[in-house]
Each structure stands twice: as C-alpha cells, then as structure tokens.
Request: fold
Amino acid sequence: MKTFLKRVLESEKVSAANKIPCKNFRDHSLEGAKEVAKKVSDEGILILEIIS
Reply:
C-alpha cells in the first residue's frame, strides 16, 4: 500500500485518462488522487462495515 501511495504522490499524469481505455476519463483528477493518497499515507485508512 505504501508503495502505491508513493507512486501516486510522485505521478505527473494520470495513466489511461483518455476516452479509449476509460469512458469516464474526464472525472480523473491527479490533484484529487494526490490529496487522498497524502491523507491516507499520513492518517491511515479506516474501513467500516455497514450492517443493515
């Protein structure tokens, strides 16, 4: 996980951010991904199971 987060933080472009491999390419945000990666790297992540 740490290796993946480091790769995101060091990235300069979003791979596959074009309409051929991804029809939702306009929603890709490198800045947003870096913000999330930094937050998870700094604070960790908590996954809660929702029981209905």
